[in-house]
Write a structure and sequence with these properties.
The chain is of the alpha/beta class and 434 residues long. The chain is built from 15 helices and 15 strands.
């Protein structure tokens, strides 16, 4: 080990001395020096196939040349806004480009920096417009860690510990597979169950006329990669319409081609009133947006919501380049094709190994749930063993689920068959050892 490598290793070993462990101690703390395409390059000289895409961020792959060039060109002219105090081309062009790919009437944008900021903006907008105090979210969903977002996040209780999030929220059950009685049609059962659950909530806990909005992930992300029936999401829309409640979709993880469409709203043919978008929007640059119709946004007066860094000119330039790449390289189609291919291979693993309880996927948003074959309980320990084993073989997966029982597979949308084969073959080998 040379002096440079030794110094780097010393820094990694002392990470807890200067970075907050609440984030810095996440799995797997892989020291890297570079990323490109679908790969990370470690300080150990190894190449790692990235099946996380920076947690659903690098949809066009790491450091796509067109995105990198756009960042450089923007930095040559303008580094910081702030939007509103000045106005610049990249933020205006991005809003125009996004209008073309959003669901109908979602044509007005408040740009921020992160997913949780986009959620906060959506909740504030809904309350301001409706003049109603309460919010309904869905059990198991994750919307962020700031206090407002945390109030509607219930994927893990540890996120809310000691935080006393706002009590102006109520929860309805999500369409979890474990609730489905044997032999029942999920399209019928879950829609009927939601109708009954909502009726009970409105009868006993909160009058629907006081509910500003319902917020949910159209596909549950951090909570376990759960894909609800289309009829269930349509029922959510119907209940909101019935009571004048605004519907917010959290598309922070599902957006920008992850499901094989631009957004999950299009995948399920359900249009929300407000949408939160982030992650895949700008190929790794910090950018997000609260999106709604001009009719709703016009009811938000000047100064009622604001940001210093949101809509950064460099981030907007990166987003424009990323959208261009997605169209030119037909990445939506690739997400569908490669997603179907990966899902077939993963289902083969389910047939092969008892520990694989279920495989779920839509586009390149794939989850592999592990359970103890003897007890039937979610097996987070086995997931960690699998993640570490795959990492040793040069493939980086991530986890999700309430007990960490789901292996999360979210590669860049540029992934090809050879890379999918490589990654899943490694997972096959590791599961055999477990």
């Amino acid at each position: 080990m040379n002096k440079s490598d030794q110094h780097w290793q010393e820094l990694v070993n002392s990470i807890g001395n200067f970075l907050a462990p609440s984030m810095a101690k996440d799995h797997p703390n892989l020291p890297v020096v570079k990323a490109e395409g679908c790969y990370y390059y470690g300080t150990d000289g190894k190449e790692y196939l990235d099946f996380t895409s920076g947690i659903a961020v690098e949809n066009v792959g790491h450091r796509h040349p067109k995105v990198v060039q756009a960042i450089k060109d923007s930095a040559d002219h303008l580094v910081h806004g702030p939007s509103g105090v000045i106005i610049y081309e990249s933020i205006l062009k991005l809003a125009q480009e996004l209008q073309e790919i959003m669901p109908p009437k979602l044509d007005n944008f408040f740009f921020a920096n992160s997913g949780t900021e986009a959620i906060e903006g959506g909740l504030k907008l809904a309350k301001h417009v409706t003049k109603r105090p309460y919010v309904i979210s869905f059990t198991g969903n994750f919307h962020g860690r700031s206090i407002g977002s945390l109030s509607v996040s219930t994927s893990k209780s540890k996120y809310r510990k000691y935080q006393q999030p706002s009590w102006l929220t109520y929860q309805l059950p999500y369409a979890l597979p474990e609730y489905l009685p044997e032999g029942q049609d999920p399209e019928i059962f879950f829609a009927e169950k939601l109708e009954k659950d909502a009726e009970s909530l409105f009868k006993h806990q909160v009058d629907p006329e006081e509910v500003a909005c319902m917020i949910l992930e159209p596909i549950m992300g951090e909570g376990g990669y759960i894909i609800p029936p289309k009829s269930w999401l349509q029922k959510v829309r119907e209940i909101c319409d019935r009571h004048g409640i605004l519907l917010i979709f959290d598309e922070v993880q599902t957006g920008f081609g992850r499901t094989g469409d631009w957004f999950a709203a299009q995948t399920f043919s359900v249009t929300p009133d407000i949408m939160a978008i982030a992650k895949g929007i700008a190929a790794g640059m910090p950018l997000s947006a609260t999106v709604a119709s001009k009719e709703l946004m016009d009811q938000w007066p000047l100064g009622s919501h604001g940001t210093t860094f949101g809509g950064n000119p460099i981030a907007c330039a990166a987003a424009l380049a990323s959208l261009s790449v997605m169209k030119e390289e037909k990445l939506l189609n690739n997400a569908k094709t490669m997603g179907d291919y990966a899902l077939t291979k993963l289902n083969n693993l389910k047939e092969k190994y008892e520990i694989v309880h279920e495989v779920r996927g839509i586009g390149l948003m794939l989850g592999i749930e592990l359970r103890d074959p003897q007890t039937g309980k979610p097996d987070g320990d086995a997931v960690m063993e699998a993640l570490n084993g795959c990492l040793d073989e040069g493939v980086l997966f991530y986890l999700c689920g309430n007990a960490g029982e789901v292996i999360r597979m979210i590669p860049p949308l540029t992934i090809n068959k050879k890379q999918i084969n490589q990654g899943i073959d490694v997972l096959d080998k590791v599961l055999a050892q477990i």
